[in-house]
Amino acid sequence: MRALARIVAEADGRGGTRLARLRGEPPLQLRHTPDGSAAATVHLIGSAAGPLGGDDLRIEIEVGEGAVLCVRSVAASIALPGRDGSPSRTTVTATVAAGGELRWLPEQLVAAAGCRHLASSTVELAAGARLLWREELICGRHAEQPGDATVSTSVDYDGAALLRQSLTVGPGTPGWDGPAVLGGARATGSLLTVDAAAPPAPPAVLGATAVRMPLTGAATLVSATAPDAHVLRGYLSTGERSPYGG
Amino acid sequence: MHRTAYLLLADGRFPSGGHAHSSGLEAAVVAGRVTDLAGLEQFLHGRLSYAAPVTAAFTAATHLSATRMGRAPSFAESDVKVPFLSLDRELEARTVSPALRLASRRQGRALLRAGRLTWPSELYGHLPKHPDGPHQPLALGMTAAAAGLSTEEAAQLAVYGVLTGPASAAVRLLGLDPYQVQNLLARMAGACDEIAAAAAAVAHKSPQELPAHAAPLADISAELHATWEVRLFAS
């Protein structure tokens, strides 16, 4: 299945954000869910199981000057193998203009047994743009070994590299759940905060396997491994507050 | 052929300060994640799959840029620095832990000092200036170029260093039998060669396209380790 979803958010000139474009196609359905704040909130609603092997799903996001867009999903997405063993792919590209803010806070990605999934995100932030970006990866459904999954994130700020991370899990990579990588944890994730107006938070230990780290540039990354999705969310939510409130 | 130069640079006795770093093994041992030879094997496989491709690709890319520059001395100074600035930024963006950024730069600085005196060259001056030193893979790529080694050899040295650092630390931290540790390294040699060859093969790509493998516990345990008051290794 191939699908493209596109979200364009613009400042409405009255301190709020309007969605100039909101277009999805199965299995990527989008729903505007106003919450009374200055931000526009959009929920991704998967209308089919997956991503399944062979799927090629693309999401394009554009946040204009002064607009605030929050993207969530209603449920975890579960990467599943296809019939012919071909890989599935989810590609997110986002641009945020100066003074704009993107909060990308979807539910977890679960790498189910036998999957071959590549999730890759590219974010370009103009100088003065803000970002909150959460990635959560669960290795297998309950009591299940995962398939092979890669979550790759690339963020540029004002034209320069800010973050490049590519995490691969699954039996195709020797040592993936060993003591140098996940240490047997089934859940791992990170939360990136970019805000040039707020000084990067100093390094901090948030738990036995959770830390907060300032990047080089106006950004902070919380990174954690955890036994399950619930504990992971707890670690990451300590950093979830938007620097702009709300 | 520069076989002896290659051996000198690979030798643990080369005075580049690498012995002060365990590459995360000390933190893994104290956390109880590595307790024996089997645990070390898992640890080293993780380092080989995740850390080595990045380190080796940036070493190889630095080496290749330096070697091309050495052949074309007419390059304007500003042109010459561009690939190294970009490699430095791209590696910085891949090293999310401030403790690991500092460990990389300190090791790079120590290696650069040793390299400059062992194989003097004007090439070193092109590395971007940073108060804590250049990243270790950039310093290694540059030193390998000054020593006249090939890009493949530079990548191989990088992979070798990723594994031998924690392997020798394991002997000290866990009291493992050094013969068994050497046997483990010998069994991993084929995989090391493959990772090094793959890194050399991408050395010509733009820095943005180089590998960016992340290992969550490498970053997390480096940050935890940095908070300890007493530790045997610097990282």
From TrEMBL, chain A:
Main location as per UniProt: cytoplasm
UniProt GO cellular component terms: cytoplasm
Annotated signal peptide: none
Subcellular location: Cytoplasm
GO molecular function terms listed in the Swiss-Prot or TrEMBL record: nickel cation binding
Keyword Repressor among record annotations: no
Keywords linked to the UniProt accession: Chaperone, Cytoplasm, Nickel insertion
Function, in words: Required for maturation of urease via the functional incorporation of the urease nickel metallocenter.
Oligomeric and partner information: UreD, UreF and UreG form a complex that acts as a GTP-hydrolysis-dependent molecular chaperone, activating the urease apoprotein by helping to assemble the nickel containing metallocenter of UreC. The UreE protein probably delivers the nickel.
Membership in a protein family: Belongs to the UreD family.
Name by which UniProt lists this protein: Urease accessory protein UreD
Organism the protein comes from: Catellatospora methionotrophica
Gene this chain is encoded by: ureD_1
TrEMBL record, chain B:
Classification via Pfam families: UreF
Coiled-coil blocks: none
Compartments where located: Cytoplasm
Family annotation (Gene3D superfamilies): Urease accessory protein UreF (1.10.4190.10)
Domain of life: Bacteria
Gene Ontology cellular component terms for the protein in this record: cytoplasm
GO molecular function: nickel cation binding
Keyword Transmembrane: no
Alphabetic keyword roster: Chaperone, Cytoplasm, Nickel insertion
Keyword Secreted on entry: no
Family of this protein: Belongs to the UreF family.
PANTHER family according to UniProt: UREASE ACCESSORY PROTEIN F
Protein purpose: Required for maturation of urease via the functional incorporation of the urease nickel metallocenter.
Quaternary structure note: UreD, UreF and UreG form a complex that acts as a GTP-hydrolysis-dependent molecular chaperone, activating the urease apoprotein by helping to assemble the nickel containing metallocenter of UreC. The UreE protein probably delivers the nickel.
Designated name of the protein: Urease accessory protein UreF
Protein source organism: Catellatospora methionotrophica
Lineage of origin: Bacteria, Bacillati, Actinomycetota, Actinomycetes, Micromonosporales
